[in-house]
Amino acid sequence: MKKPLVRTWPLAVLILAVVLWYWPATLMGRVPGEGMVSLGDLPLFSFLGRAFESGRVPLWNELAGFGSPVLAEGQLGVLYPPHRLLFGCFEASTAFVISLVLHTVLAGALTYCCARGIGQSRSASLMAGLVFCGQGFFMARTDFVWASTTACWLPLAVLATWKWMQEGRWVWPVTLTGVLGLQLLAGHFQVAFFTVVIVLVISTILGMRNVSEAPRQSWSSAGRGGLVLLAITSGIVLAAAQLAPTAELLMRADLRGRGTAYLQSHSLPPAHLLVNHLAPGTLAGYAAAEPLTWVPFRSSSRESLCYVGLLPCLLAIWVLVACRHDRDVKLLGGVLVLTLLFSMGRFVPGSTWLLSLPGFDWFSAPARWSVASGLCWALLAGRGLDQMPHAVIQRWSGRLALTAPVLVVVGLVVISLTAVEDGGNTEKLARVFSQFRSMLPGLAPLALNLAVLGLLACGALYGVLSRRQRWIALALVWVAVDLGWTGGLLRPMSWEPRVSPVEQSPVLESLANHKQQRTAGSFGNSPMRLGIANFTNDGTADINRFWENWVPPHEHLWRKTLATIPSTTRWNDMAVRLQSSPGHMDPDDIEFLRLANIRLLYGVFDSEQFDRDFPLRTSETIRDEWLTRQYFGRFLASTFLPDSTWSLWTLDDTVVSARAWLFPVGTPPEAGTDPRLYLRPPPARRHMLDSQPAVPLTDITDRGETVVVRGNASSRSVLVLSDLQYPGWEAVLTTSDKSSRVPIAPAFGGWKSVEIPGSGQFELTFSFRPPIYRVGATVSLVALFVWLILMATTTWHHVRLMRRRA
How much is the average pLDDT of 141-167? Predict the structure, then answer.
């Protein structure tokens, strides 16, 4: 009985810590709110859950504007097995919380296994697990599902690489293949790229170390390194069902705007790096933090939060100093320095050279490398907990208690002097330090840390230090409280009562009465929770203007500014105009609304009136404090929209709009009558719908991957469906006498069109069956079958060897 308890108590402590970190959700039953979760991920995963419930494998998202290849975009992890289980069985908010807690626990548990695998005690391994799963990367991204689902697998990849290069047991490269496959299926791909780089660095260092210690084993070490490359390649093959459609999307994606300025945005400045490791509350968690301390450096507190706790930093730094000749410490120290340099991005001289390397030339936000440096801090802190003598703990605690506040002040001074160019030094310092009162809540964890360090230094806790078990208990509780408290203060997400979105938001309540129409507005993806399509701007912002004219709503307006995969087609500036300035619209824009069947515009714009004969006008104003808080954030809602008033603009009832239109065409077509000849998005020609007898079609059935349009053509016509034209769509035309496949041509620069050859009733069925997905799925299934056989065989062999040794 005692042996199982000894083995399982660290996992029990880890689960308890994570449950308490997220206590509003786990103990009070609350659901995520604010941040990007309400306008971004949660509506998307609501769509995903409904698709799973209906038996679909959602390859296409019919609610994202004019439709989007949701699998190819790789943001939702459509094929990630836990998503199929969680979002297929639970309501989206509940599944979101379960996924967050489970993957956070998994991140800590796998870090625990990694630390145990490199020789640390159970207590030290638990310390490492707490530090990794509670670090700033996870704190700042609780409202992004991809962060926990991808980052949790990093420690297992490191362990598999380490064990394989040192011991050569075949189970480890097979495990590495499975880990990389899961990471890629989980989506987003950036953390998977980090994992590949870390794996290559560790395997290279360990291989060189093996050769230096045993020159005769050089070929063996080279072979193991080669198998690491094979494992990486096999992981990519295992995820072919996801990567093949993504590769097809990249071949036609709009890559404008992804230059050097974009790729190096959200780098971590050196002074911020220092302060964030000691007192992150001074740089985040209050209204003036972003414009004062981050925007001038083209970075943000969310992307750059790298806090791992003050005690773990103390333990890790001591290990780096006292055990600097230890080969494992050298390896972890080297990887730590490398990842910290990567996270600083453009602030490191010569960093632009990295952008010429594969992978580095694709992903923005270098500050996200903090997830890898966080793992190094965690493993080094665990080593320190095992080896740091009590007398040294007391001495180093005093040093850190004295130097930490000084370093924080120095860092803030450097940030103040370099944030802006205008004004004298006194004025620059005053701009930041005038916010000291706002910083006070965020300084509470630092005060706790300094108090405990002071007690350790003065000997008040000598009774604790004199017995190792008491010291370990204090250290674990200290780290758990520190990380949990800091995360609660700085997490860009709040917890709200479990209430229907329609009951919380008057705007969404109004929107729920118009489910058959597309909308446009400044509320991100939130209409998807109601099953309503919303036209948003999915392009990449002009990053220079983004920073120079920064305001908080930009993060929501440009929803995919930092997306891994760019959008397929941009509709010029139509989304921005519809969301921000309908008062500047003209008759050409009305043509766009009619063709796209967009009749409702919601936003925080002014409600100025048009001329009486203009068919767009203000229908009502709605006071919505909930949606205002989601859009602007709790700190700035009262500043940017104090009255929380939203406007609803509608097209007049006399104006006809539809999602599908029939355009009669002659043989040959007269100039300006064939929409297939227009290469630009509408409005392509003024009064096009009124200058010829275009017929709206309303009998449309949409099941995502299948859209059926029924109508009656009076003559040879071109049917235009205002859905995105994308490779993989097929069309079958059924008339009274036959059924046949017909080609799909782009119309108006990006919509679907099909020629109807003659008069009479017809039924046109569009089906999304991308061949690239079928090929990728076949490759993945074959690779999965082979991987399962190899995993079972190597695991059986590994267990048998362990039993023999025992």
Answer: 92
> From CA 766, how far away is CA 748, in angstroms rounded?
18
Q: How far apart are CA 806 and CA 278, in angstroms?
A: 45
Rounded CA gap, 311 and 104, in Å? 21
Half-sphere exposure of residue 451: CA atoms within 13 angstroms, side-chain side: 8
Greatest CA separation for the chain: 96
> Crossing angle of helices 122-134/310-322, nearest 10°?
120
- Rounded Cα distance between 119 and 113, Å, is 10
Triad 131, 133, 137: Cα angle to 5°: 95
pLDDT value, residue 577: 62
Q: Which residues contact 564 (CB under 8 A, 6 or more apart)?
A: 74, 75, 188, 189, 190, 362, 363
Which residue, 188, 119, 205, is CA-closest to 152? 188
pLDDT, position 621: 83
CA 597 → CA 77, 588, 655, distances in Å?
Answer: 30, 14, 11
Architecture of domain 660-769: Sandwich (2.60)
Burial (CB count <10 Å: 0-12, 13-18, 19+), residue 634: middle
Closest CA to 76 of 244, 253, 242: 242
Write down the domain spans for the chain: 263-460, 501-651, 660-769
Quote the CA–CA distance of 522 and 639 in Å, as a whole number: 17
Average pLDDT of the chain, as a whole number: 85
CA dihedral angle for residue 148, residue 118, residue 120, residue 367, rounded to 10 degrees: -40
Using 50, 70 and 90 to split pLDDT, how confident is the model at 686?
A: low
In 3D space, the residue among 182, 198, 176 whose CA is nearest the CA of residue 146 turns out to be 182
Report the number of secondary-structure helices (H) and strands (E) in the chain: 35, 17
Residue with tokens 């003598």: 389
Structural contact between residues 590 and 651, judged by C-beta atoms closer than 8 angstroms:
yes
Strand, helix or coil at 629?
helix
Tokens standing for residue 65: 């504007």
Distance separating alpha carbons of residues 215 and 440, to the nearest angstrom = 58
For residue 768, the SS3 value is strand
Q: Which amino acid is at 572?
A: N
Which H helix or E strand runs over 719? strand 717-724
- Band of pLDDT at residue 362, cut at 50, 70 and 90: confident
Beta strand spans in 190-317 (E)? none
> What pLDDT is recorded for position 685?
58
- Residue 323 three-state SS: coil
| Geometric angle at alpha carbon 488, from 483 and 494, rounded to 5° | 150
Weakest mean pLDDT among 19-28, 125-134, 341-350, 436-445: 436-445
At which residue do the structure tokens 């009124």 appear?
690
Give, to the nearest 10 degrees, the angle between helix 468-490 and helix 310-322: 130
Which has the closest alpha carbon to 718: 741, 740, 743? Answer: 743
Tell me the CA end-to-end span of the chain in Å, nearest whole number: 20
The answer to whether the beta carbons of residues 630 and 143 sit under 8 Å apart is no
Q: How confident is the model at residue 612 (pLDDT cuts 50, 70, 90)?
A: low
Length in residues, the chain? 806
pLDDT value at residue 639: 65
Most confident of 214-223, 265-274, 577-586, 795-804: 265-274
Task: Give the per-residue pLDDT at 557.
Answer: 41
Nearest to 100, CA basis, from 158, 30, 178? 30
Residue 502 confidence (pLDDT): 83
Strand order of the β-sheet with 695-697 is 695-697, 660-664, 717-724, 751-756, 745-747
Q: Which amino acid is at 151?
A: A
pLDDT confidence bin for 313, thresholds 50/70/90: very high
Between 437 and 490, name the one with better pLDDT. 490
Q: Which two tokens stand for residue 709?
A: 């349009």
Has residue 230 got a pLDDT over 90? Answer: yes
